[in-house]
C-alpha cells in the first residue's frame, strides 16, 4: 500500500506556487486599498468565496440534477437544485438555468434558443450603453443574427421608445432585447412588451447590471413581462463570476438544451454552489437594504458631482451607475480614468451617447456604487469621494495633489474593510 507517486494535494498555494500566491496577495491588497467605482464590480461574501473555492470544482456533472452523464453526482445535484429553487423564488421565474458560465454565454444560449440563424433582433446600440453581445460587429451576435439597434434620444439621453417602436414596425424583429451596460435610467419593460406584442416579437431582458437593484425594489421587474431574462451573478447581485437564465415554462427545454449541450459542456459546480449561496444571501432583508443604499449612494454621488459643475448624462441616475460627461472640463475619459487611478480611485472610461470621440479615448467615465456600498459606505463618503474626484480632475498634472488625495482615499478605504 502507498507505493504510488505522492500527489501535491496537501500543499498550500504559497508552497506550490509562490508567484501566483504573491499575485493573489497583491490583488487582495489592491482591492482593499482602492476606492472602487467600477459599476460592474462588487465584493462577494466570504461564504460565496468558500463555496467557489470548494471541492465541487473537482466534479464533472454534464446534464442537469437527476439526469447526469456521470456517476457520483448526488451532492452536486443537491447544490444545483438549491441554486435553482432559490433563484426561482428570488426572481419569481417559471424556470431557471444556473449553469451559464458568463453573461455572454447566457445571452448566446438565449438567442440560439429563441432565434434561427439570420433572424432579426432589435437591441440597444453599444454606443448608447448596450453590451457587446447586443450586436457589436465583431461579436457572435451580429454574425449569427441581423441586429437593428435602438438608442437614446439626443436631448433627454433616455431610451427613445417612439423611435424604437418605429424601428420595430419597420424591421419586424423576431426578438427585442432590453438591457444595457451603461444606462443610468429605469428601463420601461412594459412599453417594450407592448411594442414586442404589436410586431409579434419575443422579448428578452438582459439584467446583468441591474439584477440587484431589481431585487432591492428600485427598478421595475422584467420577469413577469419577458419571455427570457438573463443576468450575470457577479455585478450588483454580489455573487460569484457567472450567470443565469430565467424563462417562461414554454422556453424551458430549449434554454436548457442550448446551455448544455448547445454551447457548454460540464457545468462549473463550484460556481453553481456559490450562486446558491448568493441567492440565499439575496433573500435576506439586509441584502435588500444594501441594494437600496447602492441606489441612494449613486444619487448622492451624481448630485454632488453635478453641483461641482460636471455634467451627468441624462441629468442623474435611477440605478447604481452614472455617466459623467467630461467635455465641459475639457478632459477625455482615458485621461480622467488614469488621473483618478493615480488618486486611488478606480473607474473606467466610457463613451457617452453621440460621443464624437473614439471609444479608446471617450468623452466620459462610468461610475457605480455597488462596491463601495458593500464596504458599508453611505452618503457622507459618497460626497467626500465626489469632491475628491472633482479635485483630482482639476489637477491632472499635479502629482503632489493627486498623491495627497490618494493618501486620503487610502485612509477612507481602510476605515471600510472589504467584508
Ligand atoms: C448588460 C450586460 N450583459 C452581458 C454582459 C456579459 O457578461 P460577462 O462579462 O460575464 O460575459 C455584461 C458584462 O459586462 C453586461 O454588462
3D structure, described in words:
- It contains 16 helices and 15 strands.
- The chain is an alpha/beta fold.
- The strands form 4 sheets. The protein has a 7-stranded mixed β-sheet, with helices on both faces. Strands 11-12-15-14 form a 4-stranded antiparallel β-sheet, covered by helices on one side.
- The longest helix has 23 residues.
- 50% of the residues are buried.
- Pyridoxal-5'-phosphate binds next to helix 5.
- By CATH reckoning, the class of the largest domain would read Alpha Beta
Q: DSSP helix count?
A: 16
Q: Quick one: how many beta strands?
A: 15
Helix content: 40-55%
What is the count of structural domains? 2
Please give the alpha-carbon distance between the first and last residues. 45 Å
Most strands sheet: 7 strands, mixed
By CATH, the architecture of the largest domain is named 3-Layer(aba) Sandwich
Unreliable stretches covering 5 or more consecutive residues: none
> CATH superfamily assignment of the largest domain?
Type I PLP-dependent aspartate aminotransferase-like (Major domain)
Strand content: 5-15%
Structural class: alpha/beta
User: Average pLDDT, to the nearest integer?
Assistant: 97
CATH topology tier name of the largest domain: Aspartate Aminotransferase, domain 2
Shape: globular
Biggest β-sheet: strands ordered side by side in the sheet: 4-10-9-8-7-5-6
Bound small-molecule species: pyridoxal-5'-phosphate
The radius of gyration is 22 Å
Amino acid at each position: 500500500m502507498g507505493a504510488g507517486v505522492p500527489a501535491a494535494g496537501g500543499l498550500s498555494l504559497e508552497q506550490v506556487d509562490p508567484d501566483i500566491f504573491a499575485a493573489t496577495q497583491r490583488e487582495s491588497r489592491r482591492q482593499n486599498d482602492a476606492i472602487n467605482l467600477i459599476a460592474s464590480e462588487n465584493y462577494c461574501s466570504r461564504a460565496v468565496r468558500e463555496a467557489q473555492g470548494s471541492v465541487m470544482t473537482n466534479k464533472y456533472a454534464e446534464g442537469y440534477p437527476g439526469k447526469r452523464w456521470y456517476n457520483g453526482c448526488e451532492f452536486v445535484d443537491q447544490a444545483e437544485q438549491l441554486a435553482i429553487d432559490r433563484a426561482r423564488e428570488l426572481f419569481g421565474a417559471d424556470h431557471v438555468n444556473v449553469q451559464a458560465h458568463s453573461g455572454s454565454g447566457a445571452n448566446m444560449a438565449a438567442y440560439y434558443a429563441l432565434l434561427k440563424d439570420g433572424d432579426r433582433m432589435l437591441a440597444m446600440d453599444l454606443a448608447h450603453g448596450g453590451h457587446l453581445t447586443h450586436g457589436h460587429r465583431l461579436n457572435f451576435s451580429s454574425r449569427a443574427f441581423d441586429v437593428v439597434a435602438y438608442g437614446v434620444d439626443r436631448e433627454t439621453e433616455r431610451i427613445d421608445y417612439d423611435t424604437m417602436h418605429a424601428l420595430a414596425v419597420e424591421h419586424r424583429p423576431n426578438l427585442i432585447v432590453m438591457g444595457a451596460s451603461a444606462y443610468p435610467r429605469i428601463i420601461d419593460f412594459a412599453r417594450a412588451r407592448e411594442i414586442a406584442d404589436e410586431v409579434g416579437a419575443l422579448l428578452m431582458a438582459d439584467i446583468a447590471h441591474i439584477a440587484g437593484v431589481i431585487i432591492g425594489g428600485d427598478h421595475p421587474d422584467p420577469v413577469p413581462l419577458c419571455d427570457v431574462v438573463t443576468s450575470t451573478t457577479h455585478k450588483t447581485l454580489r455573487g460569484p463570476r457567472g450567470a443565469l437564465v430565467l424563462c417562461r415554462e414554454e422556453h424551458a427545454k430549449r434554454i436548457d438544451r442550448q446551455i448544455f449541450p448547445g454551447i457548454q459542456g460540464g457545468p462549473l459546480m463550484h460556481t453553481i454552489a456559490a450562486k446558491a449561496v448568493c441567492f440565499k444571501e439575496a433573500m435576506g432583508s439586509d441584502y435588500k437594504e444594501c441594494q437600496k443604499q447602492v441606489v441612494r449612494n449613486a444619487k448622492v454621488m451624481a448630485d454632488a458631482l453635478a453641483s461641482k459643475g460636471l455634467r451627468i448624462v441624462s441629468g442623474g441616475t435611477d440605478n447604481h451607475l452614472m455617466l459623467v460627461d467630461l467635455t465641459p472640463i475639457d478632459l477625455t475619459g482615458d485621461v480622467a480614468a488614469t488621473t483618478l487611478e493615480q488618486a486611488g480611485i478606480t473607474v473606467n472610461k466610457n463613451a457617452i451617447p453621440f460621443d464624437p470621440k473614439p471609444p479608446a479615448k471617450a468623452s466620459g467615465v462610468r461610475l457605480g456604487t455597488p462596491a463601495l456600498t458593500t464596504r458599508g459606505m453611505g452618503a457622507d463618503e459618497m460626497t467626500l469621494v465626489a469632491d475628491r474626484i472633482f479635485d483630482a480632475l482639476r489637477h491632472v498634472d499635479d502629482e503632489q495633489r493627486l498623491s495627497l488625495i490618494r493618501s486620503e482615499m487610502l485612509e477612507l478605504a481602510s476605515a471600510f474593510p472589504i467584508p
